[in-house]
Amino acid sequence: MHPGTMDKLGLLMPSLVWKVTGHAGAAGVEANDGLATVAGAKHGTFRGCIPADHMDEVGQVQDTYDVATGWDHLRFYRNVAFELAAHGR
To answer: What domain count does the chain have?
Structure first.
């Protein structure tokens, strides 16, 4: 920052941050996981949302269980694999 200047990006930050942090309800912001909207991520039969952002979904931030949300990516994907196997897929 230089005296007498203004950070033009600073004016845009609230709207940009809301769009990538899942804060649905802000003007024109759809629910999302930080990268994909819920509507854009629906494939086949929609069974609901999970309590994780895009990075937590694959364990990029937390190695295992997230005590704040109860999210355990390893358990989730293990259950998906078991369910697919049970259906012969």
So the answer is: 2
